[in-house]
Amino acid sequence: MQQKRVMAINDISCFGKCSLTVALPVLSAAGLEACPLPTALLSTHTGGFSDFTFENLDGQMMPITAHWKKLGLEFDAIYSGYLASNEQIEYVSEIIGSFKKESTTVLIDPVMGDNGKLYAGVPESTIGLMRSLLECADYAVPNYTEACLLTDTPIAEQISVDEAHALVDAVRALGAKSVVVTSAVVDGQNSVIGYDHVAGEYFTIPFELIPVYFPGTGDTFSAVLVGRVMAGWSLQRATADAMRVVAELI
Ligand code: PXL
After folding, report:
1. Ligand 1: distance of its center to the CA of 164 in Å?
2. Whole-prediction pTM value?
3. Binding site membership of 82 for ligand 1 (Cβ less than 6 Å)
4. What are the per-10-residue average pLDDT scores of the chain (250 residues)?
5. If I label 183, which of 21, 64, 222, 242 is the partner at 20 to 30 A Cα–Cα?
6. Is the Cβ atom of 38 under 6 angstroms away from ligand 1?
7. Residue 49 has what pLDDT?
8. Pocket test for ligand 1, best of 12, 14, 19 (most atoms within 8 A of CB)
9. Nearest residue to 81 (alpha-carbon basis) of 135, 28, 39, 21
């Protein structure tokens, strides 16, 4: 059987385990050939360090993918994470348009913020563009903050099961076929909520909150999810496994 190939669109934060530094090993461990398309080069991630260096790689994304096209490279999956500018959201949409075949799985983690706020340096205008990018997603994996920002839903301390389904449906209404919203509090219980378009069902998976905060847990989650979905696991089983891996790594 031929090894499956995934395009991993994300930044390189040289210190601090997130984005490509976690995605590449996780995707490789899942047996996939991971080709990074770096969006930016930073000395550290932006969560907790104020004087990080930041080199936007806007000028590289289209030339790199044009070279890949010339080589005839094809991708079984395209996974998009942290994008370093609004222009890059448009590039990713073009890149997906150019590389997506019938059988290509597109997973978009609309990395923009967490804990009720946009990340440092992410402008409000990113939200609308990210909304349009979700149109081409087979799987959208926002955290609770991102899901609320994308759907104009007020951020709440906790939500009911009906509100959880409505949030998932609002993300689906943007065009994503399947949705996984990480870290919502549903009826007082920390939960990952989702909708699997293959099985045609909603799911809610509760978890015990570990009271620490690390940027990169979402990136690890998404990379495990890509690995498991590409191995043919159902979305609910893939989600439960991504939760297990993230908890173990924390
Ligand atoms: O893990 C999300 C993420 C990715 N990339 C960069 C970040 C963050 C979160 O802070 O700063 C550069």
Report:
1. 25
2. 0.97
3. yes
4. 94 96 98 98 91 96 98 98 97 98 97 92 96 98 98 97 97 98 95 97 96 90 98 98 95
5. 21
6. no
7. 87
8. 19
9. 39
